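wait is this the right file?? whatever heres the structure
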């Protein structure tokens, strides 16, 4: 069994002289027949759990912000609990997360009885203004991300609806197709109207500076620091307690020796079942996860782009077959592909600049949580004082009874 700090490449290096290449070994199996046992990684699962409460709050906020005037009757929001995947009543949620909304009374229709409404709080308004500022500051990075997604696709075109569906995973602003895309006609052309069928975002011009993957940039940086040419390749590290069978070790060793295939290269000439195509597929997933905010994306979301990025129907097996590069989390009943190198235990190392927005939202939530804790503590102290006063009065009454 490998130690926790040994990578696949380290292990394979020491077994290199004992094996022969797949070109001369008739027993090396095809990609489709190779199997790796999935192993749970509790620390990476915890990374998903850490964001659970914030994501729930963000869903509720989004629901209110999408309403006209950003207000909604509380009872209407209560009916949408299932859609928001909220397992408590709205009032319970508001009590646990103060500071997001203000409650006030108004009429849904003239001459009706006033009911409780929710509106955005002043503190949430401040956050929303801060969010706009961060998006403006990081606009060049957002544009480069969008270009990269288009440049990796086979026809340099992606469905507008699909891009809208994945916007929160990559940090695109809510109205990026309407507000951002028209500002950069040198890069983008929007065909059709967003929200309608057959609406597409098309790449207008190729930017060679954007056509460098994270893996390639890392190799360039290492070459610059050491003065020695570093070949682009993946950082591969086996999870704790994990080991590979001999046939898999041999296949991975030979696969790692293949030249890196950039996700921005034209691979129309490659056989879908070839090892080179596997290298390219891993490269695309590595780049997609690197471009995502949290370096993780649900597998069903990635599956929406099978045709555009030339993924096979069984693409998800890549994440378990290359367990030293990716982790497939099953947390929450959803398969989520995660990039191992981006995490140390349950914390992100490689943080996207747009995560500043998430940090600001967490600050807003934590202010409310601290306020609630203070209120609960004061209530407990008040109850304690009342009980002590009652005990003292009871003791005095007992003494009076004895004196009589």
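ok assuming it is, sequence goes like this
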């Amino acid at each position: 069994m490998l130690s926790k700090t040994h990578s696949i490449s380290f292990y394979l290096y020491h077994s290199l002289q004992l094996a022969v290449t797949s070109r001369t070994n008739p027993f090396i199996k095809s990609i489709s027949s190779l199997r790796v046992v999935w192993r749970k990684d509790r620390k990476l699962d915890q990374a998903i759990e850490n964001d659970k409460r914030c994501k729930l709050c963000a869903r509720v906020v989004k629901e209110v912000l999408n309403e006209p005037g950003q207000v909604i009757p509380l009872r209407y929001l209560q009916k949408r609990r299932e859609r928001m995947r909220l397992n408590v009543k709205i009032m319970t949620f508001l009590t646990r997360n103060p500071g997001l909304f203000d409650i006030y009374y108004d009429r849904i229709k003239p001459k009706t009885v006033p009911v409780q409404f929710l509106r955005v709080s002043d503190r949430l308004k401040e956050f929303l203004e801060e969010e706009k500022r961060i998006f403006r500051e990081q606009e060049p990075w957002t544009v480069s991300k969008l270009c990269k997604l288009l440049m990796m696709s086979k026809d340099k075109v992606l469905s507008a609806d699909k891009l809208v569906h994945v916007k929160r995973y990559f940090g695109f602003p809510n109205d990026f197709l309407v507000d951002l895309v028209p500002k950069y006609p040198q890069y983008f052309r929007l065909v059709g109207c967003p929200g309608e069928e057959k609406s597409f975002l098309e790449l207008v011009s190729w930017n060679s500076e954007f056509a460098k993957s994270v893996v390639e940039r890392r190799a360039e940086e290492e070459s610059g620091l050491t003065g020695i040419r570093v070949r682009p390749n993946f950082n591969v590290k086996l999870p704790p307690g994990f080991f590979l069978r001999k046939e898999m070790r041999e296949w991975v060793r030979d696969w790692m020796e293949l030249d890196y295939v950039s996700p921005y290269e034209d691979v129309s000439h490659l056989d879908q079942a070839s090892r080179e195509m596997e290298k390219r597929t891993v490269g695309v997933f590595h780049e997609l996860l690197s471009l995502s905010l949290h370096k993780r994306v649900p597998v069903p979301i990635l599956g929406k782009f099978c045709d555009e990025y030339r993924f096979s129907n069984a693409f998800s097996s890549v994440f378990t077959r290359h367990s030293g590069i990716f982790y497939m989390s099953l947390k929450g009943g959803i398969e989520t592909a995660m990039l191992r190198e981006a995490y140390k235990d349950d914390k992100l190392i490689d943080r996207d600049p747009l995560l500043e927005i998430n940090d600001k939202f967490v600050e807003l939530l934590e202010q409310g949580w601290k306020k609630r804790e203070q209120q609960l503590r004061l209530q407990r102290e008040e109850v304690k004082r009342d009980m002590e006063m009652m005990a003292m009065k009871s003791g005095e009454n007992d003494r009076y009874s004895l004196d009589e």
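The chain has a mean pLDDT of 85. so i think its the right one actually
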